[in-house]
Specification:
The complex is a heterodimer of chains A (133) and B (479). With 133 residues, chain A is an alpha+beta fold. Chain A contains 2 helices and 10 strands; from the N terminus they run E-E-E-H-E-E-E-E-H-E-E-E. In chain A, the strands form 3 sheets. In chain A, strands 8-5-6-10-9 form a 5-stranded mixed beta sheet, with no helix packed on it. In chain A, strands 1-2-3 form a 3-stranded antiparallel beta sheet, with helices on one face. Chain A has a two-stranded antiparallel sheet with strand order 4-7. In chain A, strand 5 and strand 6 (76-81) form a beta hairpin. Chain A is elongated, with a radius of gyration of 19 Å. With 479 residues, chain B is α/β, with parallel strands linked by helices. Helices cover 26% and strands 30% of the residues of chain B. Chain B is built from 12 helices and 27 strands. In chain B, strands 1, 2, 5, 6, 7, 8 and 19 form a 7-stranded mixed beta sheet that branches. Chain B has a 5-stranded parallel beta sheet with strand order 10-17-11-12-13. In chain B, strands 22-20-27-24-25 form a 5-stranded mixed beta sheet, with no helix packed on it. In chain B, a hairpin with a 6-residue loop joins strand 14 (225-231) and strand 15. Classes of the chains: A alpha+beta (133), B alpha/beta (479). The A-B interface holds A 1, 17-20, 22-25, 27, 61-66, 68, 73-76, 78, 80, 87, 90-91, 94, 108, 126-128 and B 40, 47, 50-53, 56-57, 62-64, 66-67, 70, 159-164, 188-190, 206-208, 210-212, 215-216, 314-315, 446-447, 452.
Amino acid sequence: MKTENGKSKMEGAATELVCIRCPIGCMVTVAKRPDGTWDITGNTCNRGAEYAKKELTDPTRIVTSTVRLRNGAQAVTSVKTKSDIPKGKMMECMAALRDVELEAPVRIGDVALANVAGTGVDMVVTKSVEKVG
Amino acid sequence: MNKSVEILVVGGGPAGLAAAAAAKEAGVKAEDILIVERDRELGGILNQCIHNGFGLHTFKEELTGPEYAQRYAEKVQAAHIPYLLQTIVVDIRTGDGKDKGVCGTKYVTAMNKQEGIFTVEAGAVVLAMGCRERSRGALNIPGYRPAGIYSAGTAQRYVNIEGRMPGKEVVILGSGDIGLIMARRMTLEGAKVKLVAELMPYSGGLKRNIAQCLDDFGIPLKLSHTVVDIDGKERVKGVTVAQVDENRRPIAGTEEYISCDTLLLSCGLIPENELSAGLGVELNPVTAGPVVNESLETNVEGVFACGNVLHVHDLVDYVSEEAESAGRNAAEYALRRKPETGQGQQRAEKESAEICDMADAGRSAEAKIQDGLAVDGDEAPNSAAKQGSGIAVKTGRGVRYTVPSVLRPQYMQEEQVIRFRVGEVCREVELVVYFDGAPVMRMKKRIMVPAEMEQVKLKKENIEKHPGLKEIQIAVEQA
């Protein structure tokens, strides 16, 4: 799990990480061989291998949050990035959401903010909220 | 609204929705089902769980809580299953065949703003009330009662539904999943989460949540630590954290003061079984949920339980799966019970009266009627674990509990799932299933942790190969 300090990203060094692609949370050991191929163990499915490679080369996350809602049955509605975005862009993505205010009603899948933080990924609504009043 | 239904489902969260939908699919008419939900919408606590990771198992895609809830709510709505919102069930009773109603019929008392207090008669009841968070009062933390102390789930509701931040500098006691999820959530919203302290030597949450909620943001997790004092009279000013020994007692000299304005508690969930207890449902002291048989039926005939009211789950996918099973079984029970003709009605009433008489005698009526078997006279009355000819499912070494705890082979599906949790972290072990003391299954496990529910699947045909089987035991042993 020491992928951020740089050291363990060295070629050849094995990194242990917890796969976050599903709640099983496999302990995956991953190392890049000198010939550029990967040595991955501990994963129980292919998603684990994909995750391990990605975590070492280009770590990404889905960001979930809320945006303010006008005239809705609740004050905010929840949103997510439609696909994963670079891990380093998470806080920028949150900052961009601060200025967003939607008008109720909203439906699951509505775009709350297009191309969030220049990632090319849209922020979409994850909870349908009715209009009140 | 129909005041007499075949199946009444208490709770419109993931368990209740899946149970109701499955009951309809199993042949009960939609109008003969009723879901009673206390919140203003269906979906339960999933509505405030806005993070992703739900539904990989069920839908093969990664959904957020509200999205997962909506899929099941839509399923119920598409099936035209009636539901009541902002309505709370306050009491459930079983008729005794005499002055307290028709034998076996469940009388469910509920209330809401429109109708006040009213009673619905039901053939079967599915308990799907979910669970509650362990509160500060239950944790006995010393100090004043200042503002700024919240259960993690309350904070989650404030942030994700009400759109309000409970504080700026946060300490979290307990490493349950909701606490970990809130550590990330509040960090993303600009708060400083200074520490997650966990009393036990292992985390109470899923490994993936430690990785993506704490490690991603550099939030420290201190195992074997607890909060020994809360500072502040009007508002939390800080907490004192100390290390604990193997008996979970604070070690003098290890105290550390951490300034903060908010303390979140994520110290475990407790199934909400006040209604069940009032109905006479036997509870398992380990899970705090009902003792059930293979059909997820409690010791009170026709009362089924599923989801977090039965035992606390870590994955909603398994809640849905379990609830579908409870819903199908409740449907089978209701359809079996429902008289088809006038003559059937009389016979049913006669049998029903006999059932009540036998229940009075403290015997397992259903087992007697279904199997024609004699019930051992000295068995405890009303105990599902001792229902007639059932095979007891027992916990062996390392296993804290099992659900179900009794199997009646004649009612088993082709494959029976036994869910359980281990008592402590076990590495490089074997999970062993014993039939009357003889090992029949061995599975190697690299790691098993208390925070993650485990399961074994038993095939009906294997159990049928052992006629007269009395006890199945599940144990964790060194490989």
